[in-house]
UniProtKB/TrEMBL annotation:
Protein name: TetR/AcrR family transcriptional regulator
Claim: Transmembrane is one of the keywords in the record: no
Source organism (scientific name): Agromyces tardus
Pfam families listed in its UniProt record: TetR_C_6 (PF13977), TetR_N (PF00440)
Binding region for DNA: 24-43
Record lineage: Bacteria, Bacillati, Actinomycetota, Actinomycetes, Micrococcales
Entry keywords, A to Z: DNA-binding, Repressor, Transcription, Transcription regulation
InterPro entries reported in the protein's UniProt record: BetI_C, Homeodomain-like_sf, HTH_TetR, Tet_transcr_reg_TetR-rel_C_sf
UniProt GO molecular function: DNA binding
Length: 182
């Protein structure tokens, strides 16, 4: 388990630095002193390796921007800001999440669960904001949560094509539209 965690931590750094397309499994193996076969011994496939790298990225982001220690939206915006600093990981996420649309892709269940958990947590936050009187009670929390996820993923795609797009500014504006009084 320790070696697997070492591999995932190193992979985050290598992919963030070099980009998804410019990082090979061989290079990831070398970063932790293994052969390519030795690295893949810890994962059932290259697809599982990339899925676990994304899971590790989510763990790191959650610990750095945990809603319990900061304002929920500020924590979320912190993750979005951080993503702009690690374009290789954004590329990996975009690529693997798209491939996971295939019913036979090994990461499909990971993304189904990830999206469901994101929507659940975001909808919960919107309900809390509704209870505090900061969000219109007519807004459907589940639908709004899905829109935030779609906005975040869509903005990442736009940002990969045009890095001048300010992802946090767009998400903050969407939150402003949701939380402003009518």
């Amino acid at each position: 388990m320790a070696k697997r965690e070492e591999i995932l931590t190193a992979a985050l750094e290598v992919i963030a630095r070099n980009g998804y397309r410019r990082t090979s499994v061989r290079e990831l193996a070398e970063a932790v002193g293994l052969s390519q076969a030795g690295l893949l011994h810890y994962f059932s496939s290259k697809e599982e390796l990339f899925q676990e790298i994304l899971r590790k990225r989510d763990e790191v982001d959650a610990s750095a921007f945990e809603p319990d220690t900061t304002d929920f939206m500020e924590g979320f915006l912190g993750v979005v800001r951080h993503n702009a600093e690690v374009p290789g990981l954004v590329q990996l996420y975009a690529q693997v999440s798209t491939e996971a649309g295939d019913p036979d892709h090994p990461a499909r269940e990971f993304f189904i669960q990830r999206y469901a958990e994101f929507r659940r947590r975001f909808a919960e936050q919107i309900r809390l904001e509704q209870a505090a009187g900061r969000v219109d009670p007519d807004i459907d929390p589940e639908l709004a949560a899905g829109l935030f996820l779609a906005a975040a993923d869509g903005l990442q795609t736009q940002w990969m094509l045009d890095p001048s797009i300010d992802m946090p500014e767009h998400i903050a504006y969407l939150w402003h539209l949701i939380t402003r009084k009518a």
